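User: Show me a protein chain along with its predicted structure.
Assistant: Here is one chain, sequence first, then structure tokens.
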Amino acid sequence: MAKQYRTIQEVAGPLMLVKNVEGVAYDEMGEIQLPNGERRLCQVLEVTGDTALVQLFNSAMGIDIENSTVRFLGHGQELGLSPDILGRTFDGMGRPIDNAPDIIPEMSRNINGLPINPAAREYPNEFIQTGISSIDGLNTLVRGQKLPIFSASGLPHNQLAAQIVRQAQVLDDHEDFAVVFGAMGITFEDANFFIQEFYETGAIERTVAFMNLANEPTIERIATPRLALTAAEYLAFELDMQVLVILTDMTYYADALREVSAARKEVPGRRGYPGYLYTDLATIYERAGRKKDSKGSITLIPILTMPDDDKTHPVPDLTGYITEGQIMLDRSLTQVSINPPVDVLPSLSRLKDDGIGKDKTREDHAATMNQLFAAYSRGKDARELSDILGESALTDMDKIYVKFSNEFEKKYIGQGFRENRSIFDTLSLGWELLSILPESELNRIDQELIDKYYYEAKERVENNSISVGNNSDK
């Protein structure tokens, strides 16, 4: 039986000191028993000699130093796992909140897990379809990749996250696909939005959701992404599923880490965040990937808001070092009702070239992607020149590129939050937009592909038989 300690020395905010402990380890879970019989959880943050510093999972209210006892459980925080976790919603501690019975676990895993050994990693090279043209066509998500979304306050990243949960899939019907969704520090309204979306669209059947609300304990916010990734590791590496993990909002997670660090009186780093923020984020992000000995994979999309729209803020800055690219959301696109407001030019998927092409998407994918990037960039430059000097300063070709950029934003980027496009719809739409340009301007596409797709797309446009890109839900 675990030893009980009646040696609580001090309680300060969310922290508590326990003296004269024996055999207690870092990250070990503990249970506090109050005089009235109530039990509360805590976790060891630090052990110095015979003194343990623990983090409270609940308020310190009601803890009587003289009469309360603490016992340590001999293990870290664990999550019970079984195939029944699919379709379920849990809180930030892994407890069911969907009014369904408790999970009967087949196994339990420590939520801290381990990053995948680099020698055991398989290189990501298989396409994942999100149904969003600005991602699938231009910043392709690859199975096993870490691709964050950089957003800002007031931008519709929650709607984008819900859309990805609803629409994401692998193209091989023989493979099982699941989504693990972890939300940290969100409001009750946001949590209700996600839950309603998942249930109304049926996405909940293949989803495991972990919800930590803004009014819940800070330590739960730190545990939530680890719970989500533990569930993902079980689904991917025990059940051989292809798993997409979406974590929102990593800025709130980092703020929780800063709060705990300040309570421990640690020396702060940039903007008050602890000096180990990079290491801590890496322990989360590096749990994604593919393993050589497993058919399953974990693909990670962390979403973070940039305070003051500042991409040099420590959280996006460090995230960019660890992950393989970023999807940037743009406020100016939202202001003109172009949603999802993905700014494709500064966005980047470093692994996209490995997940596209013949036998993965289609043989024209890379060429059309490069041509669309080049044409949109020139069109934006011409549009800005027109805004400054007037339309008369533009050449006839510049005016064509301005028309292209406007149509590209309206139809390709601005598909709305309810339209689900296959990669083939996206590629066809790309050709229809490129048909605005003269053939001589398609200098990044081989003539063989132009002959195969360009004239057919031009004919569709002339006959007004475009099948995608006219979505009215913006």
